[in-house]
From TrEMBL:
<keyword id="KW-0119">Carbohydrate metabolism</keyword>
<keyword id="KW-0624">Polysaccharide degradation</keyword>
<feature type="domain" description="Pectate lyase">
    <location>
        <begin position="86"/>
        <end position="302"/>
    </location>
</feature>
<dbReference type="InterPro" id="IPR011050">
    <property type="entry name" value="Pectin_lyase_fold/virulence"/>
</dbReference>
<protein>
    <submittedName>
        <fullName>Right-handed parallel beta-helix repeat-containing protein</fullName>
    </submittedName>
</protein>
<keyword id="KW-0964">Secreted</keyword>
<keyword id="KW-0456">Lyase</keyword>
<dbReference type="Pfam" id="PF00544">
    <property type="entry name" value="Pectate_lyase_4"/>
</dbReference>
<dbReference type="InterPro" id="IPR045032">
    <property type="entry name" value="PEL"/>
</dbReference>
<comment type="similarity">
    <text>Belongs to the polysaccharide lyase 1 family.</text>
</comment>
<dbReference type="InterPro" id="IPR002022">
    <property type="entry name" value="Pec_lyase"/>
</dbReference>
<dbReference type="InterPro" id="IPR012334">
    <property type="entry name" value="Pectin_lyas_fold"/>
</dbReference>
Length: 379
């Protein structure tokens, strides 16, 4: 039998101590990803192997390495002999087969392009499962026209991927929904098109909704899109997510929803906002948001929104909902950005410990370290 058609078995790694699962999460002491080596100019914070913020709570977020038995696959090695016609179809099948395997972890090193043209499904479902890591290798992990849909899933890590031009399925780069919990989205580059594009062709770059909670979105480069992010798909209570940290992200050349927040408790920490055409942090329906240590550059149109009479800028309540949200502004910087009208409307803070950089330090670190290809994830 030729090597290309030889049976393919998962690589297995066993935790040194066999630990029982606790709730939806395994209580393994392994990290969220294997040991990382950062690029020469990366900082320790950017290369950290566990999340800051809400995803560190509720038992923590360890992904596929958080189980007693870990099944590891390198996509380029697995799919040719898997019987599936493309890397995307092979990855979809691996995720589907992992459903119901409580206490076991799945880690897939993505070193192929998952292309819509060669993919049988409308989106990549990470659905009804737990303890999963999707880790890009170098700059090889790419989703071209295919989004990742995390649905009713727990303890999931998505790291170091390029995801772009998703105009099929739910049209989100990454969607987190249906009561998912403990999700870490880190060091990805996600983009569509903005100027000259039909704003209905794509949806959000990262949308989190429908009861999902304990999510951290960190060190991502999100750019070129009409719709950037949201934490609820409508004003209703059932549509909202909660307990989300956005930290050290670079938001660049987008129109609005950076993010759109309804009803959620959110921490916007040390992000860099650059060239946001209309408005950025849109707080509605009683949302409580700590906006801390961010650098806003050319953020907001400066026009007055006709709905609530507020200036379109870095933080506010715009476009539709009947009830405002609330924001606590701590140590932010504004450059060529309408901000003289801003003041805090709540004293909301967060229940976890963290280190905050100054806005200027945050901008420099984000420019250097956000996006994919900055950290090396070794199979």
């Amino acid at each position: 039998m030729s090597p290309a058609h030889a049976p393919t078995h998962p690589r297995r790694r066993y935790a040194a101590l066999a630990l029982p699962a606790v709730g939806a999460l395994a209580a393994g002491l392994l990290g969220a990803v294997p040991p990382l080596s950062a690029a020469a100019d990366s900082t320790d914070a950017a290369a950290a192997d566990s999340p800051v913020g809400y995803a560190s709570m509720n038992g923590g977020t360890t992904g596929g390495f958080g189980a007693g038995t870990v099944h590891e696959y390198v996509l380029s090695e697995y799919w040719p002999g898997s019987g599936h016609g493309s890397p995307g179809d092979a990855l979809y099948a691996l995720l589907k087969e992992h459903r119901g395997k409580s206490g076991e972890g799945l880690v897939v090193y993505v070193d192929e392009t998952v292309s819509a043209d060669a993919f049988s499904e409308s989106k990549l479902d990470v659905k009804d499962l737990e303890n999963v890591s999707l880790l890009g290798v170098g700059e090889q992990g790419e989703f071209d026209g295919v989004g990742i849909n995390i649905r009713n899933a727990h303890n999931v890590v998505v790291r170091n991927l390029e995801i772009h031009h998703v105009d099929r399925g739910e049209k989100d780069g990454i969607g987190v929904q249906a009561d998912s919990s403990n999700v870490w989205i880190d060091h990805n580059e996600i983009y569509n098109e903005f100027q000259g594009a039909d704003k209905e062709r794509y949806d959000g770059l990262i949308d989190i909704k429908s009861g999902s909670e304990y999510v951290t979105v960190s060190w991502n480069h999100l750019h070129d899109s009409w719709k950037t992010m949201l934490t609820a798909s409508s004003d209703s209570e059932s549509a909202a997510s909660d307990k989300i940290t956005y930290t050290n992200n670079h938001f660049e050349n987008v129109n609005s929803r950076v993010p759109l927040i309804r009803r959620s408790e959110v921490h916007m920490l040390n992000n860099y906002f650059e060239d946001i055409a209309a408005s950025a942090i849109n707080c509605r329906m009683g949302a409580q948001v700590l906006v801390e240590g961010n650098y806003f550059q050319r953020t907001g149109s400066g026009e007055t929104d006709g709905h609530a009479g507020q200036v379109e800028g870095p933080v506010g309540w715009w476009y539709g909902s009947d009830e405002t949200g609330y924001w606590n502004l701590v140590d932010n910087a504004f450059e060529e950005t309408p901000s003289g009208h801003l003041e805090s409307t709540t004293d909301f803070t967060v229940p976890y410990s963290y280190d905050a950089l100054s806005p200027e330090e945050a901008k420099a670190q984000v420019e250097q370290n956000a996006g994919n290809g900055v950290i090396d994830v070794a199979p």
